[in-house]
Specification:
The chain is mainly beta. Helices cover about 0% and strands about 55% of the residues. The chain has a single domain, classed as Jelly Rolls (Sandwich). The protein has no helices and 9 strands. The chain starts with a strand and ends with a strand.
Length: about 90
């Protein structure tokens, strides 16, 4: 498993075939909807996942990724200041 709490919107690479991506929003003044996008092809993306303001639950935002997939996270709608922790290459 790989974990990051900085540069949450950076491009990341899946190295563990069939693994999942999780996100926990640790601070946000408003509800957020976040989804993953495949780097280089915006037509390939996950469904938006709602993160209510104040809820610090860890949520799966994508599953069963192929090794070598590059992805990044994006906020649906207007960008807000928020913090969180993203985990990828997770088997759950």
């Amino acid at each position: 498993m790989r974990t990051a709490s900085a540069d949450l919107l950076s491009v990341r690479t899946i190295t563990a075939d069939g693994s999942d991506v999780y996100l926990r929003v640790t601070s946000s003044p408003v509800d957020l909807e976040i989804r993953w996008f495949r780097d280089g092809d915006l037509r390939v993306a996950g469904s938006p996942v709602l993160f209510p303001a104040g809820d610090r639950s860890r949520r799966r935002i994508g599953s069963n990724f192929r090794a070598g997939t590059t992805f990044y996270l994006g906020v649906v709608g207007s960008e807000q200041d928020w913090c969180g922790v993203v985990d990828w290459n997770v088997y759950s």
